[in-house]
Amino acid sequence: MSDTLHTILAGVAAEHPDVRATFPSERESVTYAELHGSAQAMASGLVAKGVERGEPVGILCPNAPEFLRSLFAVSASGGAATPLPLPLGMRHAGAYPARLAAISEAAGMRRVLVSHRFAALADGLKETVPHLELINTDEIHGDAPLPTVTPDDLAIVQFTSGSTALPKGVRLTHANIVAGLLAIREGIALGQTDGGGFWLPLFHDMGLFGTLSAVMIGIPAYVWSPLSFIKDPARWLHEFLDSGVTITAMPSFGYDQLAAAFTDAEAAELDMAHWRIAFNGAEPIAEPAVRAFLDRFTPGGFRPESMFGVYGMAEATLAVTFPPLGREPVFEHVDRDKLADGGRAVQVEADAPGSRAVAGVGRPVRGLRLRIVDPEAGGELPDGQVGEIHIQGDPVTAGYLAATAVQTHTGGWLPTGDLGYRRDGELFVTGRRKEMITVRGANFYPQDVEAAARDLPGVYKGRCVAVSAPDGTETMWLIVESNRKGADAEALAAALRKAVANELGLAAVTVHLVAPRSLPRTSSGKFQRLAARDLVQRHS
Q: What is the pTM of this model?
């Protein structure tokens, strides 16, 4: 197989020249023939500038045509496209240059392609990151001959969103990406009658590889800005449905937002029958959120089997496990205490005391192998026993970029850092290994603590995170967004401690109230628990 990202695009441009990638938030679109031609010209300009084989070239662009043009141009030049996170708003703008400098140093990056829409940002960066050559995406073109690129060449460096430290740069070859996209295509039977519509940022793995899944087979792709969804989920859904595309992807909280944006009467008026796949991943899948979404939107024609709970990560070019097509969401109810403290998934009735619902996320996709390993003793674990998820296969990275060296996994298996168990071949993901909380010898999943707290009056939109105390003491921190002050804040803190104690038998809880919208999130919207703890430490 000799396919690379840009050779596949060339084939798409020849077979589907007039099919478009549309960017509604920017009111722009580009045909695949135009995309291929402009990317080739930009690639020649990069070669003329001296881009070397495998060299990471940054892409600092919003969800807009120039992002895709830059990605395919870097690919054709022989470089490694490195999508860069964008500033999350004015509140974070001051810290952005230092973040960009750290990422560029970790990647060994010399050049960044910058959207013309970020001209003001680029002017400021010239002084703060002078070692980087900032290239306007509208001003780079040429006619230098392009190199021969092989499937084993580095194609993309995908930085993970991270929870505390600098994100890691995942090294993906053309072969990794082609295998990963094929796995997605086969896993959902993606065909020429489909179309993809996404709002996650293109620098995030779910947004990037979801969009590429559509582009690389020549079907319509619609790419909104993340802000368009966050500001008005109802409007986004109307535009998604009106576009006629059939597939989207988002974390569980996105489906929460959609359900909250409509009344039952409004939802019943929608025409959702053509919505075929609703990928639900990137964070733990909550049963109440799924049930609320289905209750709200099935009267409008949304089919329960279209809710597609999956497990994936950038290290696997996104897809790790998919459920079978045509199956409604599956949740297994297990004893919460045995799961957390004994690592055993003991099935119980849904209404049993201490029951916890865990989503089934299917079986490994094409070309992917998976095992559950005892994180302490090593060795593969049997069904129903919780361990660390390890993956191996054609779409899986060979390792990470670091500031001083390339770090690789050993033994052919990549430890994911996620915990889970298998039942009859199906994977159930239970949490992150590094986020497990130990208090007085007992283990707790942060999701269980948060579930006990989030519905109390005074918790802003249910937003809270649980983490272990940073000083090594046998206590837990519960960090909660709230508007309450003074005596009202003290009363809320007491109510939170009581709720956790009643639900989990856990009394050693310290409550920290923070301002609404202050809990840090990843680019996909997940709360960063450990980063939230660091934030409280810095301001206490």
A: 0.88
Q: Report the alpha-carbon distance of residue 94 to residue 121 in Å, rounded.
A: 11
- Give dist(CA 461, CA 393) in Å, integer: 40
> Mean pLDDT in the chain?
91
What residues are paired with 468 via a beta bridge? 476
User: pLDDT per residue over 520-532, tens digit each?
Assistant: 887 666 788 888 8
Q: Nearest to residue 294, comparing CAs of 281, 286, 304, 284?
A: 304
Which one, of 123, 129, 135, lies nearest residue 69 by Cα? 135
Tell me the mean pLDDT in the region 345-370. Answer: 95
Residue 406 confidence (pLDDT) above 60: no
Tell me the CATH number at 59: 3.40.50.980
Highest mean pLDDT among 188-192, 352-356, 460-464, 522-526 belongs to: 188-192
pLDDT tier at 427 (50, 70, 90 boundaries)? very high
- 8 Å CB contact between 73 and 39: yes
| CA 200 to chain CA mean position, Å | 8
Cβ pair 479, 464 in contact under 8 A: yes
Element (DSSP H or E) covering residue 444: strand 442-444
Range of the domain at 111: 5-9+27-170
Is pLDDT above 70 for 304? yes
Residue 483 lies in a domain: yes
Determine the Cα–Cα distance for residues 129 and 124; give it in Å rounded to an integer: 9
Number of domains in the chain: 2
Residue type, 96: Y
CA angle 70, 233, 275 (to 5 degrees): 80
Residue 510 has pLDDT above 60, yes or no: yes
Final residue of a domain: which of 151, 170, 189?
170
Question: What type of residue sits at position 251?
Answer: P
Final residue of a domain: which of 170, 202, 222?
A: 170
Residue 516 lies in a domain: yes
Classify residue 512: in a domain, yes or no: yes
